[in-house]
Each structure stands twice: as C-alpha cells, then as structure tokens.
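Continuing the batch. This is chain 6 of the set; chains 1 through 5 are on the previous pages. Same settings as before, nothing changed between runs. Recording input and output for traceability.
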Amino acid sequence: MSNEELILERLSKIEEKMGGMCKSWEELAEFKQDAALLMNPAIRILTEELIEVESGFQLEDVFPLMKRTLRSLKNLTYALEQLENLIELWQNLEPLLKVAVPNLVRYLDELERQGVFRILKKMLTVEMLQFVDKLLDLPVDLHLEECKPCGPIGMLSGLRSDEGKQALGVILELTKALSKLRTEPVQVS
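Output for chain 6:
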C-alpha cells in the first residue's frame, strides 16, 4: 500500500470514530433533555418535603449522625440480626399461638364452670381469715411485763436466736406490705 492509501484509510477510520462520537454527543444531549424534564418535578417535590422538616433539620447535625452511625455499625448490624431472629421466632410461634390461645381459653372456661376459681377464692379467704385471727391473738400471747429495757447491743444479741431471726423476717415482710397502703408518693429529701 502506498502512503496515500494509508492516509486515506486512516482518515476514513477517523471519520467513523468522529461519526460515532457525534452520535454519542447526540445521545448525551437527548439524555440531558430527558433528565431536565424529570429533574424539575423531582426538585419541586424535594423542596416541598424539606420545607416540612426545615425547623428540625440543621446540616451540621448530619455529620455527627454519620460519624455515630459509622462507629455503631457493628451494633446496628447485631441489632438487625436480632430483629430478624425475633421476626423469625414470631413467624414460628404465630401458628402455634393461633391454636394454643383458644384452647387455653376453653380450658380456663371449663375450670370456671367446674368452680375451681370459686374454690381458690374461698381458700384464699379462709387463709386470710386465719392470718387475721392469728394477728388478733398476738397481743394475748405478749407478756409485756417480762420486757426488759434493751439497747442496740441487746437487740443484736436477741436477734441471734431463731425466734429473733424469724421475727425480724416477719417485721420486714409486714413493712413491705404496709408501704403499699400509702397512696401519696414518698418524697425523699
């Protein structure tokens, strides 16, 4: 091939590439026009949405949030995994509960019809009456004339006995129960 033929061949290749580039420029211009048509409504919607959160949003708050999120990524991943486990557990338990809850309701209804709950209520009433009866008999069993003056050391020595330990336990339980009778909140100063 002569130099002229080589030059003509190269020129034709360059023209082909230029034609392809022109076609690419035309496609890019079309894409730009299409994007412009879509961008105007998108920007309008974005602006409207940002107006709603304008008072609560500051740009300088974004970066600390991003830093904290990146530092907590491991914890967030763990939390998401646990949430997936919880959802899977619920999905496994839901069919079981759909069967078990109605059966439990039927069973409790049957116990109610048989009077089991009335019997339990009466038993609790009887126990409560026995407790109140013992509580009323308590002053009769006290021998106040045998009481001696007692200081802190005497009280400690009295608590060494089994009776003293049991009495202290009863006093603590009564104190807990009596605190529930108070209706106004306790103010600690």
